[in-house]
Amino acid sequence: MTIHQSPEAFGYDAFLRTHQSKEVLRFITCGSVDDGKSTLIGRLLHDTKQIFDDQVTALQRDSRKHGTQGAEVDLALLVDGLQAEREQGITIDVAYRFFSTDRRSFIVADTPGHEQYTRNMATGASTADVAVILVDARHGLTRQTRRHALLVSLLGIHRVALAINKMDLVGWSQDKFDAILSGFQAFAAPLNFSEVRAIPLSAKNGDNVVLPGTAATWYDGVPLLRYLEEVPVKSEERAAAFRMPVQWVNRPNSDFRGFSGLIASGSVAPGDAVTVAPSGKTSTVARIFTADGDLERASEGQSVTLVLADEVDASRGAVIATSDAPLTLTDSLDVRLFWAAETDLAPGASLWAKVGTQTVNAVVKAVHRRIDPETGQAGPADKLAVNDIGDVTLTLDRQIAVDPYVENRDTGSLILIDRETTDTAALGLVQTVVAATKASAPAPAASESKPQEAARSGGLLAGIKRLFGG
Ligand SMILES: Nc1nc2c(ncn2[C@@H]2O[C@H](COP(=O)(O)OP(=O)(O)OP(=O)(O)O)[C@@H](O)[C@H]2O)c(=O)[nH]1
Known about the structure:
The chain is α+β, with helices and mostly antiparallel strands. The chain folds into three domains: 7-233, Rossmann fold; 240-322, Beta Barrel (Elongation Factor Tu (Ef-tu), domain 3); 328-467, Beta Barrel (Elongation Factor Tu (Ef-tu), domain 3). It has helices at residues 12-18, 37-47, 53-66, 76-79, 83-88, 117-125, 143-154, 174-188, 224-230, 234-237, 450-457, 460-467; strands spanning 23-30, 95-100, 104-110, 130-136, 159-165, 195-200, 243-245, 248-253, 256-262, 267-268, 273-277, 281-290, 293-294, 298-299, 303-308, 319-322, 328-339, 350-355, 358-371, 378-380, 389-402, 413-417, 424-433. The strands form four sheets. Strands 7, 8, 9, 11, 12, 13, 15 and 16 form an eight-stranded antiparallel beta sheet that branches. It has a six-stranded mixed beta sheet with strand order 2-3-1-4-5-6, sandwiched between helices. The chain has a six-stranded antiparallel β-barrel with strand order 17-21-19-18-22-23. The protein has twelve helices and 23 strands. Guanosine-5'-triphosphate binds at residues 31, 33-39, 68-69, 76, 80, 90-91, 112-113, 165-166, 168-169, 202-204.
């Protein structure tokens, strides 16, 4: 089995190339501090044999030195690799872990349970197919569990694995398990999950994570990993329309002109009719060019260069889309925001908005409502504070090409960037899109501008967008 577990050691592209033939499932883990997320991911890596022997030796040594398990191996150390977080005892950032089994490859977004969770969770969840929500069986559902479930549902993840962990500490009590599950179902009823799968487990002991546990004689379901291997991934549920943001124009000589980018969604084949946003120019795909030769079809997640049949002007910032479902051009956006900046957001605020490779100036026209994280109910509001979720209208200085988030997570999400600090201030999900009635100057094919640089180098969201094709 191929061995890899860290994005630093093994890049996303390389990971996908190696496992091209396998389906990829992206999932996010969420839970409060100490529910056992790191131990669970460590257990998944360990029991699927994703770690080298020398890592095991290092782990045994580290466990004695830094671990919380006495003489035993502390699996959380496999995941909590950073020195600082060992010292502080918390996980700091969103970290991506890669592992694979014979059936599937997995990309796990591990987000911390401390107070930055809104931003971090929004980051990880915006690309996930499934959310694994951890609950400590001793404590049951907490405020955090409810908040995480709400965020997951707002971000459009329809499947939840409710991992009821530390069952060993409650004597594998079926009553406890049933009570937690029914409490969750009651809270989640309005959240539109298509599936909630509860699994009793012990990440520490390895019961029902990769291998079936024997302690819960009453449980007749599968271990978590088996669920993750079998759950349908998004692409099986709905074929998204083809979208490829142009990252650069490949023009090595006057005979060749191709548009290079990462396919954000859908697939494309030579002969397909395409429309380029924002210019609205149409053409057909003549060739799909890659370093390994031409392709008959290319799909989501692949980096390709498209050669079009006609001389079409498109540059960085443009999006090539299928002509039967083009993007909408607009300069006014209704957006659900996950506001992450320390300063409040109020009407009149001016920020950069970045959708894929397009960057424009955005002014907050109105703040409409705030969603109560406890209940999921929306109430009127005129500003948003740090970690708030709310709905706003943005006025853009130029038209951009977007989709509603429900139709396409890539072309339907944006980040807002603080103009002063160049920090990522929010993740936004496009709610409704009304096409602009009159033509205004479309977003230019900006040369590398300040916000783009910022979004390239700074901010978690930007990093993830980069990794996952924004
Ligand atoms: N008994 C028992 N202890 C567990 C289990 N899972 C995790 N733990 C322990 O719970 C503590 C917290 O586990 P972590 O994996 O560090 O928790 P976390 O959710 O990643 O916490 P942060 O990284 O701080 O967000 C550690 O001491 C683990 O060994 C379990 O199934 N049973």
